[in-house]
Design goal:
The chain is of the alpha/beta class. The chain has 2 domains: about 5-75; about 105-210, Pectate Lyase C-like (3 Solenoid). Helix content is about 20%, strand content about 30%. The protein has helices at about 25-35, 55-70, 85-95, 210; strands spanning about 5-10, 10-15, 45-50, 75, 105-110, 120, 125-130, 135-140, 145-150, 150-155, 165-170, 175, 180-185, 195-200, 200-205. The strands form 3 sheets. Strands 5-7-9-11-14-15 form a 6-stranded mixed beta sheet. Strands 6-8-10-12-13 form a 5-stranded mixed beta sheet, with no helix packed on it. The relative contact order is 0.08.
Length: about 220
């Protein structure tokens, strides 16, 4: 088998590399292959497949620079990681279920939660409205407020410190996630949605859009 193989895929190229070959030989083979492509290589998307070998980060970095500087290719990436069979089964299960008739444990309310009122759910709570000071929200899972949150809130009551609290205006008088609690915030809201999570044993509140909390999730999951 040659140390380098090239195949056209979609709008780019898949390059299979034998990492056991020397870097010099690999670059020589790449040069021979890409010289035949001429202008087709410019800004093309290239996927480098190292055949599942590990410890090739340095070689991949060198080849990426070489391809971009020598042949003006565009984005150079590695193939997506293959999921294990159990993970793939979970993914297929979630994607095939659909949610049209899904029986949800979410308590969803619309309207203002006034002082003295208590909302409690064994799982998640979604409120489309404001939560006034003196009101209390208790949830076994997540709490999402599509409005101002100015009362007391406790998410993850069962001790789940992976629970989150999200509000379009985050101004609770007291917030607790699992067993971690914090007093309300005194500074003025900046008008953007915020999210509270537990990090290293303390509650952290940050911009919802800037947190990128869900970027690591590869597909929708039933909660």
């Amino acid at each position: 088998m040659p140390p380098v193989r090239l195949k056209g895929v979609g709008d780019g190229f898949l390059i299979t590399v034998d990492p056991q070959a020397s870097e010099e030989i690999i670059k020589e083979q790449l040069t021979l292959l890409f010289q035949r492509l001429r202008h087709l290589a410019i800004n093309a998307r290239v996927t480098l497949d190292m055949g599942g070998a590990t410890g090739c980060d340095e070689l991949v970095a060198h080849l990426t620079v070489f391809l971009k500087e020598t042949f003006d290719v565009g984005l150079v990436t590695l193939p997506p990681e293959k999921r294990s069979i159990p993970v793939e089964r979970i993914r297929q299960r979630d994607l095939s279920k659909g949610w049209k008739h899904h029986s949800s444990d979410v308590l969803m309310l619309r309207g203002r939660v006034r002082s003295g009122q208590k909302i409690e759910s064994k799982k998640h709570v979604v409120i489309m409205g404001n939560v006034n000071p003196g009101a209390e929200i208790l949830a076994g899972g997540h709490v999402i407020v599509m409005g101002r949150l100015r009362g007391r809130v406790h998410a993850g009551m069962s001790g789940d410190e992976t629970a989150i609290v999200v509000a379009l205006e985050f101004r609770p008088t007291h917030v607790q996630i699992g067993g971690v609690a914090a007093a309300g915030l005194d500074d003025v809201a900046d008008g953007s949605a915020e999210i509270a999570t537990v990090e290293k044993g303390r509650i952290v509140v940050q911009s919802y859009l800037e947190s990128n909390l869900f970027d690591s999730l590869p597909w929708p999951e039933v909660m």
